[in-house]
């Protein structure tokens, strides 16, 4: 028995029996083959997570595995795609690390009914997980970074800063801290992404590198200025939860610059306003002509830096 193939079968292939209806050649061959149904397009994205870079060395590897898959799936959520498959390139220091990472990866595939359509398994000096995700979307309906229109409203679905707060607690040794679960558990907003796309939203991304930085991607992609109103961010639940522990200023800084929130940031025509409120989205600003991100407090532009807050007027 070849140990490598035995491990791949035992740890991965046999544990994710789900196959997607479009797959015509399954895991186990040199490549998988998929039929794209009439009227649909395929959406693909890839994401790498490396131990000590993307997750702390003292984080359990099953949690790291689940995070890696969920973070990759969040890109499908941002496009409004229906998730279907993942392909997994995994590098492990030893057998035990491989088994632990596989636990979280397998559980996440099962939780989302996603096919593990293929992969590659290697030994390496560092544990690392590359996840390629694939999904389907009705032709021409993908939400993109380039589709915001002038006078669109800016919206957010999800919370901000909670993961950054959890990381801070983890790093300070408070591994049972209140916010640590937000850092450990990434929840890709797949259903919400589909819902937004079905409502006619055209411009969206998932916030992985901090609200301000990611708003910059929409702003440059769509050639518009994005005005974000701080008082609206202060109506988020995160702004109720963070200040008792971190103070108001630090909390806002984490909400503006903290990473790995995986909230959906999108723009929409004002006519969608009440529908978006109904699904729990937060209206946080306005697209206007221009080419920059502006932070406003009660309508007045205020200063900020990307890595830290200067002041609030
Ligand atoms: P090849 O030599 O053709 O690249 P491999 O020997 O790397 O194929 O892998 C054998 C089969 O197992 C392939 O079908 C591959 O997609 C699958 N596979 C390898 N590693 C994994 C993994 N970690 N999870 C799921 N499938 C995997
Ligand atoms: Mg081959």
Would you mind describing this structure in some detail?
It is a single chain. The protein is of the alpha+beta class and 313 residues long. The protein has 2 domains: 3-138, PurM-like, N-terminal domain (60s Ribosomal Protein L30, Chain: A, 2-Layer Sandwich), CATH 3.30.1330.10; 153-302, Alpha-Beta Complex (Phosphoribosyl-aminoimidazole Synthetase, Chain A, domain 2). 35% of the residues lie in helices and 27% in strands. It has a 7-stranded mixed sheet with strand order 8-10-7-11-9-12-13. Strands 3-6-4-5 form a 4-stranded mixed sheet. Strand 12 and strand 13 form a beta hairpin. The protein is globular and about 70 Å long. Bound molecules: adenosine-5'-diphosphate (ADP) and magnesium ion. Adenosine-5'-diphosphate (ADP) is lined by residues 8, 12-13, 27-30, 88, 90, 116, 118-121.
